[in-house]
Write a structure and sequence with these properties.
By secondary structure, the chain is α+β, with helices and mostly antiparallel strands. A hairpin with a 2-residue loop joins strand 3 and strand 4. Helix 5 packs antiparallel against helix 6. The chain has 6 helices and 5 strands, in the order ααααββαββαβ.
Length: 198
């Protein structure tokens, strides 16, 4: 969800900046006169001497009592939203370490990325899976796995999920000493080009 919102915001920001840049470029280089075309009446820049805000637009509301509090409040809200979004990018539920009972009373720590690598490798080795990705996340203090699997054309999704639960996830649970390891699997079909038969 966060990745999708990031991409949409980045695309919208890029399109707005591109449109503004093209408007300034067309007006600043006086392209409509050089290339002999007309611009819409609402076009903001029609010549090299045009400015973004005229002196009248810049000073229109300065004499009103509400102007500066509104400007400061709006900028404060923009700053707080940007700060919140920045902190949201850094916050992750990804599991960094996992405590394992080593049997000697001391315990051990397994890096989350190490277990993710094992899950990925064993998933890719399973019949019918062409590529895989695994992420461990912490939900209410218990680890869970998120798997993304690219299925081969001959694979049956039901068989792949049952096999992964019975083999790959069972092996991960046993090696990490977990009673349970909930998993969410997203299956994607791998596209192949049609083969020519002669």
């Amino acid at each position: 969800m966060r990745t999708t919102v990031n991409r949409v915001l980045l695309a919208v920001t890029g399109l707005v900046l591109l449109a503004l840049g093209l408007a300034v470029l067309i007006g600043g280089l006086d392209l409509q006169r050089h290339w002999d075309f007309t611009l819409p009446s609402a076009w903001p820049f029609t010549g090299p001497k045009d400015v973004l805000l005229t002196a009248h637009d810049r000073t229109r509301y300065r004499s009103h009592d509400w102007w500066w509090p509104v400007v400061i409040a709006a900028l404060g809200v923009v700053f707080l939203v940007a700060l919140w979004w920045l902190l949201a990018q850094a916050r992750t539920k990804r599991l960094r370490q996992l405590a394992v009972d080593s049997g000697d009373g001391q315990g051990a720590q397994i890096r989350g990325r190490a277990l993710e690598s094992v899950l990925t490798a064993e998933s890719e080795a399973y019949d019918g899976v062409e590529w895989a990705g695994a992420t461990l996340v912490a939900r209410r203090g218990t680890p869970s796995a998120r798997l993304v699997l690219g299925l081969a054309p001959h694979a049956t999704p039901q068989d792949v999920v049952a096999g992964l639960d019975g083999e790959v996830l069972a092996h991960a649970r046993a090696s990490a000493g977990l009673d349970e390891l909930p998993a969410e699997a997203r299956l994607r079909a791998v596209r192949h080009r049609a083969r020519r038969v002669s």
